Amino acid sequence: MILLNFNPEIGVFCQDPDSLDKLKKNFFGEERGDNWVLEAEEALYVIVFQNGVITNIITQEQMGFNQIASFYIKEDPRLIIKYNAYRDWRDRGLILKRANKVDKEGTKTANKKYPSKKTEFPELKTKIYWYRTSLFSIAEDEEIGKKLFEKYWIGQLGVYKQQRGNLSRLEFMETVFLAKHFGVDVIDAINGKKIEWEDVLKQVIKEREYTKQLYDVYEDWRLRGYVVKTGFKFGAHFRIYFPGASPVREDKWIHSKHVLHVFPKDQKMLISEWARAVRVAHSVKKTFLLSIPEMKKEDYIDYPADFIAYKRKRDGSNWVRETPEDKPRYLMAAVSEDEHIGGIELASLLEKAKKLGVELILSISDRETAITYYVLKRVLLPGSDYEYYEIEWEKP
To answer: Tens of pLDDT along 335-368?
Structure first.
């Protein structure tokens, strides 16, 4: 049994010597003045799983889970969501502490570096016809269409995965890219007049939300030699093929191993939808990449994280849990499936994790309080002005 006290001015604290020894050995609480004080989530966990008994020193009554939670939740409305994350991590025998109470830098985990090369494109003297209401264009020049498809994997020659037809269908990002970087003439199918790539982009921006952000990311990867195609079937904006991939060369025709989702900074996304897209990618053995474009220095906010989390380390032939004496591993943000998260908030958390020298881990609680963890790892794409992140499922 662990004996604890409660005082509205202090919170939950411990004075019993035997109980205090148990708390310190398991890294519950901290010294504040003359008292050893527990955070709200620590007190709740000790009540439920450590045979804790809390006595109100004013009324001398024993206090239960709901009484303690009701006291703290007035100042921390998200307490139960954070408690669920805390409980799950602790149940795994691992330690975590409030993020604002840890000042030790992390392990400075290495970024993942992707291959990148500046790609030059030849000028092509040809015309493509732009169908604005359908947001795609058509190229009738079979020779040019075949070259674009087989060498650069731009457009769809004939019918998808069938050797039928000689027309090339180009979606709007391919249309803009060809006009901008290959010098292809775009003809408005309605009036037969030439239209500049900037005007094509403006037209699509009026029809589709976040078009500019999508195109900027598309162009960023294309200029570095990557093949970028739709990721619709996998719940993301793009699927990514590394340089050299081709739809016709058997030695290079490979299934995409990466999908990329663009998360505009001013967009808010339901956590369950975000997690669903990641799960779809992982279910087909693809790495999920995230982009938050257009972030500027003034966009970042001091968005609060919840915990600094520790994992396990090897000690000889054994694995032992890390403690606050070690360098931290993760900055943890606890969320529920029914919450929303914004691009700015997520980018700010990632920046905070970067400064601490740790990785960001999202703890997602579903409606049954089961927890799923995702780690976000920074990707370096040399020459790019954008930041990208790999999102991996993590089992602590």
So the answer is: 999 999 999 999 999 999 998 999 999 999 999 9
- Contact criterion met (CB below 8 Å) for 360 and 391: no
Whole-prediction pTM:
0.90
Burial degree of 49 (CB within 10 A; 0-12, 13-18, 19+): exposed
Give the C-alpha distances (Å, rounded to integers) separating 298 from 294, 295, 301, 303.
Answer: 11, 8, 8, 13
Residue pair 321/95 in contact (Cβ under 8 Å)? The answer is: yes
pLDDT of res. 175: 97
Q: How many Å apart are CA 71 and CA 272, to the nearest integer?
A: 29
Measured in degrees and rounded to the nearest 5, phi and psi for residue 295 equal: -70, 130
CA distance 71 to 69: 5
As a CATH number, domain 120-211 is 3.40.1170.20
- Residue numbers annotated as active site: 241, 255, 286
Distance from first CA to last CA of the chain, Å, rounded? 28
Query: In the beta sheet, which residues pair with residue 258?
Result: 240, 287
Dihedral sign computed on CA atoms, order 71, 77, 82, 84: positive
What's the average model confidence in pLDDT over 227-249? 89
The per-residue pLDDT for range 28-48, each reduced to its tens digit, is: 999 998 899 999 999 999 999
As annotated, the residues of the chain forming the CATH 3.40.1170.20 domain(s) are: 2-76, 120-211
